[in-house]
Design a protein that fits this description.
Blueprint lengths: L3 E11 L8 E17 L3 E9 L12 H13 L4 E8 L9 H14 L8 H16 L7 H6 L2 E5 L5 E5 L5 E8 L5 H6 L7 H19 L3 H7 L6 H4 L6 H10 L4 E4 L6 E6 L3 H14 L4 E6 L7 E2 L2
Parallel strand pairs: 3-4
Antiparallel strand pairs: 1-2, 1-11, 2-4, 2-5, 5-6, 7-9, 7-10, 8-9
Helix pairs in contact: 1-2, 1-3, 2-3, 6-7, 9-10
The chain binds L-homoserine.
């Protein structure tokens, strides 16, 4: 009988620029871990939160990992419970899907204790219950890629269907996280409720072009289609220096550059050979605007969350 389990769930870049709320990819370089210990007492207790974000609620109902595991436990009618320790590797409010990763790691670790483990698709809805605690709205573009890995398109909300999209070989994602906090709720609140028809057409063309280019390894098409004409123009003012950071990334050879999720992390897709120069250029641009940053260069691997111990 299993008595402990630890799961890792990767950070994610939601939207990937052109797929607001429906497209996201995993970032293998960073993530959250959840350690569970089986207890005879039913229920879920959070014992500690360690790592990069300590200021999070310990009440399971108010914590993304706690609520996600609780909903899994209740659905399975388990007669045992869990003590949980959350290890945050993803900075809070960074736009890297930290709340989703904790929820995903919790359900993947919990699944390891089930006599008949659930499929990843079945786990998705429990992780969504956790993510809803933090974001106050339902979108799956962080949870799905964290759970499944790679680049993931999600269609539907109540019964989401997901599709892993192939990423051309050798693509890297450069992530630059300026040292500032941005609230996802605020970054959603400022968005206009309506979209111009011409922008809708442009955005649809870019999303369709981007996805078909991923299937056909067409890097020129990815570069042409990598432009969010709806959300990025409205959010960029929330990130000091965004325009300069993007300009620097593109000048250094990026295929595309945009805001990761609700920000403030800015990401760029590129070929492996250009990644280091792009990282340097982006962080220098943030520095010109008085912002220090953390930086990662990551592959977009189709691995997703997994039990690691
Ligand atoms: N798609 C979401 C947004 C991701 O951009 O608001 C943030 O969690």
């Amino acid at each position: 009988m299993r008595t402990t389990a630890t799961a890792f769930a990767p950070a994610t870049v939601a939207n990937v620029g052109i797929g607001f709320d429906i497209l996201g990819h995993a970032v293998e370089a960073i993530g959250d871990k959840v350690h569970l210990t089986r207890t005879a007492t039913p229920g879920v207790r959070i014992q500690a939160i360690t790592g990069l974000a300590l200021d999070l609620p310990l009440e399971p109902e108010q914590n993304t990992a706690g609520q996600a595991l609780k909903s899994l436990v209740e659905s399975q009618g388990l007669d045992f419970g869990f003590d949980m320790v959350i290890e945050k590797g993803i900075p809070l409010g960074s736009g890297l899907g930290g709340s989703a990763a904790s929820a995903v790691a919790a359900v993947v670790a919990g699944n390891a204790f089930l006599e008949k483990p659930l499929t990843s698709l079945e786990l998705l809805k429990f992780a969504m219950k956790g993510e809803a605690v933090a974001s106050g709205s339902v979108h799956v573009d962080n949870i799905a890629p964290s759970l499944f890995g790679g680049l993931v398109l999600t269609v539907g909300i109540d019964f989401p269907r997901t599709k892993q999209i192939p990423v051309p070989p050798g693509i890297r994602c450069v992530l630059v996280h300026p040292h500032m906090y941005l609230s996802t709720k605020e970054a959603r609140r400022i968005l206009s409720r309506t979209v111009e028809m011409s922008d809708l057409v442009w955005q649809c063309a870019n999303l369709a072009g981007f996805i078909s280019a991923c299937y056909t390894n067409d890097l020129d098409m990815i570069r042409d289609a990598f432009e969010d004409v709806v959300v990025e123009p409205q959010r960029q003012a929330l990130i000091p220096g965004f325009k300069d950071v993007k300009r620097s990334a593109m000048a250094a050879g990026a295929l595309g550059c945009s805001i990761s999720g609700a920000g403030p992390t800015v990401f760029a897709w590129c070929e492996q050979k250009d990644a280091k120069d792009i990282e340097t250029a982006m962080s220098k641009a943030f520095l010109m605007h008085g912002l220090q940053s953390d930086r990662w260069i990551s592959e977009i691997e189709p691995k997703g969350a997994r039990v690691i111990a």
